[in-house]
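Fill in residues.
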């Protein structure tokens, strides 16, 4: 089991370059299945989840060439022979479900093992399936090799009006990718508005699709008969951006985040300012300064974009553990995303919680401890707490962190963190 050993090394200082977005690149890679021509995706972060998506496409018979030095992935899927994702791969990552829409659009068939990923709640896929059915897809479940699979088939995909009961990011992406090759017009209402949705729409439009309204709650897609290959640069990762902004705040340091996009992290900028940090929007990024400042607590509630992102809830809670006063965090997006609390409490954090509400009382007595990353963002939250605690913090199960943060140890060390990877 690999671990990080983290020690308090005072305020972090320096510059960090933000990588391409994990949550943007995964749907882009899946969308490459919509054409038999080559797609080139630049600024692709070298992450475990990206490796899993490469393996899923290769297992179908597609050609994937990922140059991790140049962060460029080339995908060519004219040789695909298998329209699905098996249990071994799909169980590693929930985003494996994103190949379902493109496979249906290209071949009218998809067989996907029920997806895995971080254990942060039930995370059903009913909204994806309901939308597919509205487009004319027949769906059933099949159990084989000890696993549950979703099988989907359509003779023809027909554009339609879809209303999502919740603005699910994955369902919006999957349905957009199916609708681009359906006959007629599809509208998705109460669609997710995340920047990753806009990036996907831009990629699809470069491939020849007709997608309008991405980034708003209503997306209109006019189906076309064929898409072609393209080249695209992935947007910077707003969650990595937020994590390093919080690293500056929790250590009362000063970090410049190069190529970070301020408009993608508005709620975090607002909350950090409420706490008393100085946040500057610059031409080539964002800088956060908490040097010699007394930070105070605040309250937040996670919401779909443009609300406060659920993926930054646990890292922000680590900051609140160290600020003066009492703050409140309400998680509304996932029902089981407080697993980091028990770990933070092992370090001396004062947190009362029930259901989806946590009350955090700041302390200056955080102590290093042996803790466990229970999911990707919870893992990052524990590293942040370790940077502010006295003594040594051992963070176990760091493979979760490596699913979503490129060169995490290298980048943290680059701004002065004392962090070591142990196999
Ligand atoms: C994506 C992100 C993840 C982020 C989440 C919310 C990727 C690869 N992952 O995940 O990092 O935390 O958005 O911002 O982009 N739901 C249903 N039925 C469905 C689909 C979703 O009930 O069919 C529920 C989920 O259980 C959850 C909520 O909707 O409670 C949000 O899920 P969703 O927006 O779909 O998240 P993901 O796309 O899985």
């Amino acid at each position: 089991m690999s671990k990080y050993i983290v020690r308090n090394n005072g305020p972090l200082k320096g510059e960090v370059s933000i990588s391409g977005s994990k949550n943007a690149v995964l749907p882009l890679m899946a969308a490459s299945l919509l054409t038999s021509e080559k797609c080139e995706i630049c600024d692709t972060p070298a992450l475990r989840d990206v490796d899993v998506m490469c393996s899923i496409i290769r297992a179908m018979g597609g050609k994937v060439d990922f140059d991790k030095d140049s962060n460029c992935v080339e995908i060519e899927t004219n040789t695909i022979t298998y329209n699905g994702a098996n249990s071994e791969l799909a169980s590693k990552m929930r985003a494996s479900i994103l190949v379902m829409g493109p496979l249906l659009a290209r071949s009218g068939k998809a067989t996907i093992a029920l997806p895995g990923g971080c254990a942060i709640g039930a995370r059903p896929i009913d909204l994806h399936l309901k939308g597919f059915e509205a487009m004319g897809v027949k769906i059933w479940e099949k159990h084989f090799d000890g696993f549950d699979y979703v099988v989907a088939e359509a003779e023809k995909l027909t554009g339609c009006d879809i209303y999502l009961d919740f603005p699910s990011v994955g369902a919006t992406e999957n349905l957009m990718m199916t609708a681009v090759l359906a006959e007629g017009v599809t509208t998705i209402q109460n669609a997710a508005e995340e920047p990753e949705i806009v990036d996907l729409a831009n990629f699809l439009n470069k491939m020849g699709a007709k997608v309008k309204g991405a980034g708003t709650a209503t997306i209109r897609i006019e189906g076309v008969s064929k898409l072609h290959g393209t080249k695209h640069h992935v947007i910077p990762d707003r969650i990595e951006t937020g994590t390093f902004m919080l690293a500056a705040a929790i250590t009362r340091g000063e970090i410049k985040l190069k190529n970070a996009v301020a408009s993608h992290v508005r709620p975090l900028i607002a909350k950090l300012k409420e706490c008393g940090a100085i946040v500057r929007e610059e031409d080539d990024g964002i800088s956060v300064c908490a040097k010699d400042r007394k930070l105070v607590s605040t309250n937040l509630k996670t919401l779909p974009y443009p609300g406060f992102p659920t993926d930054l809830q646990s890292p922000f809670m680590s900051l609140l553990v160290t600020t003066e006063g009492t703050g409140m965090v309400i998680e509304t997006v996932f029902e089981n995303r407080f697993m980091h609390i028990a770990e933070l409490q092992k370090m001396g954090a004062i947190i009362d919680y029930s259901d989806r509400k946590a009350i955090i009382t700041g302390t200056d007595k955080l102590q290093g401890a042996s803790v466990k990353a229970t999911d990707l963002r919870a893992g990052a939250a524990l590293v942040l707490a370790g940077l502010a605690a006295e003594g040594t913090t051992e963070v176990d199960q760091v493979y979760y962190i490596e699913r979503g943060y490129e060169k995490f140890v290298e980048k943290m060390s680059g701004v002065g963190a004392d962090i070591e990877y142990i196999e």
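The longest helix spans residues 238-250.
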